[in-house]
Structures are given as C-alpha cells and as structure tokens.
Amino acid sequence: LAGPELAAARRHVVVGDAPAGGRPRLALVGEAPGATEDETGRPFVGRSGALLDQLLAEAGLDRAGAAVLNVVKCRPPGNRTPKAPEVARCSGWLRRQLELLDPPVVVALGLSAAKWFLGPRTVLAQVRARPHLVDGRAVWATYHPSAAIRFGPNGAPRAGLLADLTAVAGSLS
Ligand code: URA
Q: Which atom of ligand 1 is nearest to the CA of 42?
C-alpha cells in the first residue's frame, strides 16, 4: 500500500472514517496517521485529533457528519513527513475515496494535504482562508492541528485554523 518502509513499520492501515448514510457534506483530509492512529486504526484520535475535535466544535462543525481521511494511510516512522513517492503510491486510494464519497467541500489540513489538492508549489499562507475549486469541489487548505499545538494556544496557526473552519461552517449553512 504505502511502500516497503511504511508497510514494514505500520501496525494498522488507517483507511479513514466515513459517516453512515450517504454523501457527506464535508471531508477533512490530514497528512498521515500518527502513533495513536497507527495503534487504533482510526484517523485523528491522538493529540492532533483531540484539538481538531475541539476546534471543529468551536467552529460549529460536526465531525460525525464528516469524512476523515489522510493523504497517506500508513504511519511514517517517527512521524516524519511522507516522501513524494509514498504520497504518489497512496494517491489512488484518496482519489477513489473522494470519488465514492463525493463531498462537495474538503478541508486539507496542513501542507502535505494542501499540496495534494493544490500542487507541489503550494504555500499555505497564500492559499488559506478561501475555497479553491478542484475537480468540482470547494477545497479549503489550512493549518494542521499539530502546527496549532506546536505554536501554542495563542499562536497564529490555532487562530488561523479556527478562522478557516468557521468560514467553512459558514459556507455549509
Ligand atoms: N495527523 C494526521 O495528519 N492524520 C491523522 O490521522 C492523525 C494525525
């Protein structure tokens, strides 16, 4: 699935979550599973997931109604950024998930996901805070919750992530 190095190190392939009952209005797309996700097989259930849940609630978005996916389905050792060939190997899975789920709105969390949708030269600060039309979907790229954790509760990434999720919520209502 994700190349020999990731396949050898992983415990679970983290496929992602999709709500029961048809087409979700929103898909959240992260980078790759972390340690807790690798252990449990579920996306965004560790520290990043806890902050994501909190910010989604603050923004008025319901995680249970959203698909939660990742660009890469297996944990990179030490949580390093997935390499381009690993992303390429996994791309068909995310492409097919998006085809099948067909969410009209996507939130790309962090640079790996932003690049997947918007191209390899993407600069997050230049593309965030507004939707981009990609294959008929409104794609919002924003900070990853791990950046919000790294820069702290008063840092720019947390505020930016919350502002962007709030704008997404507004676009759905
Ligand atoms: N970070 C991600 O990008 N995805 C997860 O599922 C968990 C942490």
A: 6
In angstroms, the CA 133 to CA 117 distance is 10
Rg (CA), the chain: 15
For residues 73 and 85, is the Cβ–Cβ distance under 8 A?
no
70: phi then psi, degrees, rounded to nearest 5: -135, 155
Q: Which amino acid is at 49?
A: G
Helix or strand (DSSP H, E) at 91: helix 84-101
Contact 142, 61 (CB under 8 A): no
Query: Would the CB of 16 count as within 6 Å of ligand 1?
Result: no
Give the strand order in the sheet containing 105-109. Answer: 66-70, 26-30, 105-109, 137-142, 132-134
| Pairing label, strands 137-142, 132-134 | antiparallel
CA of 144 to the centre of ligand 1 (A): 9
Q: Is 122 in the pocket of ligand 1 (CB under 6 A)?
A: no
160 lines ligand 1 (CB under 6 A): no
Burial class (CB in 10 A: 0-12, 13-18, 19+), 48: buried
- Reported as a pLDDT band with limits 50, 70 and 90, residue 1 is low
* Residues 7-41 pLDDT 10s: 888 999 999 999 998 899 999 999 999 999 999 99
